[in-house]
């Protein structure tokens, strides 16, 4: 392991992140971290979350991979008027703050990477069509993640707002070579499609099990708050395989899964983790709908951040902040 200069902290911007790594890099880094987590060599810590005002939230998420000598702490705020986040990366053996990263793009990369990995391992091998439900800032990378693991011929786009779905479809046509159709209804968008990705902030479930093709793969990655839901309970009735990014995080944050399996871990025996199926290796696909639920983990952020920081150090990218000596706090006496 190369020596790290503990006299500096590196500050990296969104532009630095996207220049240093791409989505395919993020998928590889996350795959490696998922297997470390399943082997017990990396750890997520419980998320701290607070809600205030009109659908505004504060979040903090920590993670540690001692064998890699790296730890991370992502903090962020999400409001109806905007959001921002920062990822702090530490060298835990000596307590050094190695880097601070503007983490909006990093978060979108790790969320999309999880969907791409899950699709690669769970969707039918010859799947060539996808439906994306939701057209917000995360949606395009979700399409790119699936396109990275399946040779798509067609994309169907749905948002309840016509202007949004038409705009997104037009942008997708500029970015990808496959056909793109903006669909007028949810039913039309998912009918007969082998891969469906939900990336919305819906508070009420809208996707019913009967809408899905018999062997469809579903990425449900938008509803990540305890009072949000994207799919109806009957989706589970059609599922041949159910996989999550992290059982404890999904239990804490997914209304869909809590309503189905409860809060007793003994009821979650049929729920696998993504790291588990990667470590087990390729096996024949189980018949039926496959469901992947991700709510985001600290280790997913850390996996991508680690690669960003390593490349920044190799290429000397970012603003370097020198370590200042301890300073005596001041006070004013009465």
UniProtKB/TrEMBL annotation:
What organism is recorded for this protein?
Chelatococcus asaccharovorans
Q: Which domain of life is it from?
A: Bacteria
Q: Which Gene Ontology terms of cellular component type are present?
A: cytoplasm
Record family assignment = Belongs to the ornithine cyclodeaminase/mu-crystallin family.
An example Pfam family from this entry, by short name, is OCD_Mu_crystall
| The protein's name | Ornithine cyclodeaminase
Entry's InterPro entries?
Answer: NAD(P)-bd_dom_sf (IPR036291), ODC_Mu_crystall (IPR003462), ODC_N (IPR023401)
What the entry lists under Gene3D superfamilies is as follows: NAD(P)-binding Rossmann-like Domain, ornithine cyclodeaminase, domain 1
